[in-house]
Amino acid sequence: MATEKEDMQRQLLALRDRIDAIDEQIGKLISERARCAQSVAEVKKASGETLVTYYRPEREAQVLRRAMERNEGPLGDEEVARLFREIMSACLALEEPIKVAFLGPEGTFTQQAALKHFGSSAVTRPMSVIDEVFREVEAGAVNYGVVPVENSTEGVVTHTLDNFIGSNLKICGEVELRIHHHLMVSDVTHTDSITRIYSHSQSLAQCRKWLDAHYPKAERIAVNSNAEAAKRIKGEWNAAAIAGEMAAELYGLQVLSEKIEDEPDNSTRFLIIGTEQVPPSGEDKTSIVVAVKNSPGALHGLLEPFQRHKVDLTRVETRPSRTGAWTYVFFIDFKGHVDQLAVQSALADVAAQVSDLKVLGSYPKGVL
């Protein structure tokens, strides 16, 4: 008679055999998908078009949404979507690897957002400032750029908004990243003698209460990025840095304290910028910028057409105009695509009463 241990071993062997068989099927299907992606590239090349577009933001958004809708568990929807994202990224790289500029250096949250959106097969290139990300895309040196636009606790990134005013680039997508800050040290750090802490100014602000409680006497030194902070402490025995997990892995640092941000739901929204207009995906957002003279009722007149045409606004930001005194620029996000009749009607009514209106892009609503 079989013992309980022998019975358990038989069950485990049967389950492992089943997993092996499933893995074999998955491998074959991934290879088949990759061959289909290669065939797509061949068809596009044979079409004779001078500029072949391999990456389709609306198509990828639709694939990810369907993957999440079909998901039966036990994996969560976002985990399933991430797996599909990596498969699509690898398949797309067979056609042509996507080149993406991001606000660097390597190890920043912006690079993490780029890899979350495009997958790890994308070729990412760090830029020192947001202006350079825009210039690289405009020059055609990269296919897309990734820039931060707003943080849930620190607000809008004004430098990104200002760049859109003078640029012809389009917003092609968005990605939201949950921001977790970690206190990290290097192999030379004396953890009981930390007197200075490096990080980006926004990260220092987002961790202020935690720092007040745990390192009230340590000097807080703002640098250009969290990744720069992570690199800087490699040679300082009395310093620590606040950065993300990616920076710790990239620069070989030890995480001393995890998730030290004051707000647990701290997140940052990033925009994908490119040169083409994106067709509707079925669940889209549109961003516009309008210039308005400062006069009584100007804001009401600007927003009323959206209410009348039942277009749902999601964000309104204002900036002083660079072109003249008492003129303001409004950045507006709303649900819908410029191809939709209600959106076209609302924009026509707005354009009739403002000094300038520019559509920055319609793009798929963030999936992950």
From TrEMBL:
PROSITE patterns, per the entry: ACT, CHORISMATE_MUT_2, PREPHENATE_DEHYDR_1, PREPHENATE_DEHYDR_2, PREPHENATE_DEHYDR_3
InterPro entries with a match to the protein in the record: ACT-like_dom_sf (IPR045865), ACT_dom (IPR002912), Chor_mutase/pphenate_deHydtase (IPR008242), Chorismate_II_sf (IPR036263), CM_dom_sf (IPR036979), CM_II_prokaryot (IPR002701), G/b/e-P-prot_chorismate_mutase (IPR010957), Preph_deHydtase (IPR001086)
Keyword Isomerase applies: yes
Record site feature (Essential for prephenate dehydratase activity), residues: 268
UniProt xrefs under CDD domains: ACT_CM-PDT (cd04905), PBP2_PDT_1 (cd13630)
Keyword Cell inner membrane assigned: no
EC annotation from Swiss-Prot or TrEMBL: 4.2.1.51, 5.4.99.5
One Pfam family cited in the UniProt record for this chain: PDT
Signal peptide: none
Protein name per Swiss-Prot or TrEMBL: Bifunctional chorismate mutase/prephenate dehydratase
Natural source organism: Simiduia aestuariiviva
